[in-house]
Amino acid sequence: MSASAKVEQPQAKFRLDYQAPDFTITDVDLEFDLDDQHTLVQATSKVKRVSSQQDAALCLAGESLKLLSVSVNGELWSDYQHDEHELRLFHLPDEFELCIQTEINPSANTALEGLYKSGDAFCTQCEAEGFRRITYFLDRPDVLARYQTRVIADAKQYPFLLSNGNKIDEGVLTDGRHWVQWQDPHPKPSYLFALVAGDFDVLRDQFTTMNGRQVALEIFVDKGNLDRAPHAMASLQNAMKWDEERFGLEYDLDIYMIVAVDFFNMGAMENKGLNVFNSKFVLANPQTATDDDYLGVEAVIGHEYFHNWTGNRITCRDWFQLSLKEGLTVFRDQEFSSDLGDRTVNRINNVRIIRGPQFAEDASPMSHPIRPDQVIEMNNFYTLTVYEKGSEVIRMMHTLLGEEKFQAGMRLYVERHDGTAATCDDFVAAMSDASGVDLTQFKLWYSQSGTPNLMVTSSYDAQQQQFNLTVTQQTKPTADQSEKVALHIPLRIALYDQKTGAPVALMSQGQSVDPVLNVTQETQSFQFDCTSPVIVSLLDDFSAPVTLSYDYSDDDLAMLMRHATSPYARWDASQQLLAKHVRRLVADYQAGVELSLPYTVGQSFLHIIEDESLAPALIAEVMTLPSENEIAGWFDVIDVDAIAHVRRFIRACFAQHWETTLQALYHDLQPAADDFSHQAIGERCLKNNALAYLALLPANSKWVEVHFEQAGNMTDTMAAMTAANSAMLSCREQLMQSFSDRWQQDGLVMDKWFMLQGTNPAQNCLANVEAVKSHPAFDMKNPNRVRSLIGSFVNNNPVYFHALDGSGYQFLVEALIQLNTANPQVASRLIDPLLKYRRYDEPRQVLMRQALEQLAGLDNLAKDLFEKINKALDV
Ligand code: TRP
Ligand code: ZN
């Protein structure tokens, strides 16, 4: 930074500084004259003064806009000031019509926020604060207005002109352009505005609501992609039906549109009546999409649809309340996936995200409560904490209230707040008022950041025939908060006879006890009647987002793996058994001791793998080791090489031990390639897991090539390539080449290939990743490409990202310098692994700090990166 021109530093906003606006806007009339570089926007708003402060100026947010004119009640208005971020109008009447004309440049908009071009189409992304890149506005979620939108564009290039609500009129102009007029009857905040213009193929269907209303459903995809849209349509219909059945919530417009675009910063966006989706979460057919992609489409389609009530009808008062809509909507989409598919497998996958990346975020410089207290760049707070931990907080309320009272709470919440902008406090109040459950202490989950640890000890008193459990909770200080208090933690437990594994009823002094214990104090004891020694299963179903310290013996864990009545608890016991041995082996590796894994460990797993009463998808989860990142979270100082080595060692041990069973699984499971039922998906997952282990055994690895050649869908193709990649088989290059030959025209499919390049465990990985950047399908401007190649390398290839020569860090710095100007949102997500430098050994810390300082010195550092780098370097 030059000493003379000291740039103004971005300022934080604070939750407690919230003030209601001085003005509101009740109606907006928008007109867009679309052009690649010179789009004209005219916004005509009905504005009302709502505060008693008669002299208050009207301050409208605006970014990267060219202001053409301002008029009030039809007269040109000059009593204003404006700068880079704001337009301030003075001496205004109490009620008036404001008309503002601006010009914007969509084709220069590589940040993908506001109005931009995705390929040949125009589209918008307004959450959180993108509407201010379209026009000067009260761009805050507590200003709810009725929108009318007229879109004008060339008829040939843009036959479809879409916006929120219902189409009320259309016409053609003499110069080859045409126009469409849209009207959205539901008042909404500006972040839910959307506009799309382009040429698409459309999949049309319909849905009849529980009250018999017909809703037209339309999915817009790039020309030629119609055969990839039916799964999204089926998912939408399932979501609409599910929300009626489980939550009693019905859709409220006559039309629901989804547009798939290739350039998108996130997963999808719930704009009223016109969702815009990353094409990754719409397009799927058996040739192009894996089973996980199918499930991802179902979940995201559900998520955006569920926002119609939890987000759109009831929105957020301010952005600090983001978890009000996101935590709740993630909870709803998780329940949707669980009701339609395998509940335990869904739970396991959600728990893996909390225990891996969410716990890591909690322990990082970016640590924040699910309702943050201070924000510089709102886009930085669309986080795992707000979304996934936010969902866990809703889930805990569901656990404490039970389904019936939870639904009563939801009804009260809707009754009280429909059509308004609400707060997290409002939600909890509705839950507690409707149920009579006191949530006063529970609410601390909204304000306290960090991950509580539960230290549990137990003892059996043979004389008293009593089992004692002592629970101590502790939350370590986080980067944002040094003082922590005791939380209300629902702790679900079960008891099993230590000798037989038979379930033991939970009783205390002759009375039966609820399996969910209320842990509310720092230390608390619980007693249970038992006639013989028991094994306790703790935190069943992951009843709270906490870590657990309890000294299980291998035998007790093996017993739980075999006999626990909850399939979740069986999986969790298997993970705890692994965790014990991973920790021990890492220490052995560091001490130079030869590694060995007791035969009994592999044997305990084999019992589960061979248990025919279990769903194949669940067995597949049991066989899946925790990721290197999740394991890293267990250590104060992360030893990337030791962790990678130990994880590979355990996989090799298991492959040898289980060889016969793996072969049988691989050859016996024969799901049809075109069967996408949950059963078939589970069977493929198990079969392909078996293949991944077999690939580690030279005598069996030949099956990988056979699998690739015989693959009848993308899941099997990818299973072969993934196995070849992680086992570093000699056939890898050939499979990769053949895939690229077939799919190089299709960026979305090539993302899978880029991801395998990024996670390649071979020595030359980084050089290869560098080379792949010039592959014709790679495009630094496309967030999906960046995430699949660069994101997978920095997040999921720790050994090379953390190479001791600093090459991985420098590679990231170079990408970030480019993205900082081109797309700050994508840059800001990519930097996360670098922020965690304090967790590594000294030499790596030095290199990572240097990389951060290098970025901090950029003279055009975007707010997004500024906020994160400053936090990381500051503490
Ligand atoms: N509300 C969106 C969702 O959760 C999130 C989202 C989509 C978003 N695009 C964004 C957030 C861009 C910030 C910026 O479904
Ligand atoms: Zn959402």
UniProtKB/TrEMBL annotation:
Domain Peptidase M1 alanyl aminopeptidase Ig-like fold: from-to ranges: 450-551
Domain of life where this protein originates: Bacteria
Keyword check for Cell division: no
MF annotations from Gene Ontology: alanyl aminopeptidase activity
Domain Peptidase M1 membrane alanine aminopeptidase: 232-442
InterPro entries membership: Aminopeptidase_N-like_N, Aminopeptidase_N-like_N_sf, PepN_Ig-like_sf, Peptidase_M1, Peptidase_M1_dom, Peptidase_M1_pepN, Peptidase_M1_pepN_C, Peptidase_M1_pepN_C_sf
Cofactor: Zn(2+)
Domain Aminopeptidase N-like N-terminal: 29-192
Enzyme Commission code: 3.4.11.2
Family: Belongs to the peptidase M1 family.
Entry-linked PANTHER family: PUROMYCIN-SENSITIVE AMINOPEPTIDASE
Protein name: Aminopeptidase N
Native source species: Vibrio stylophorae
Gene: pepN
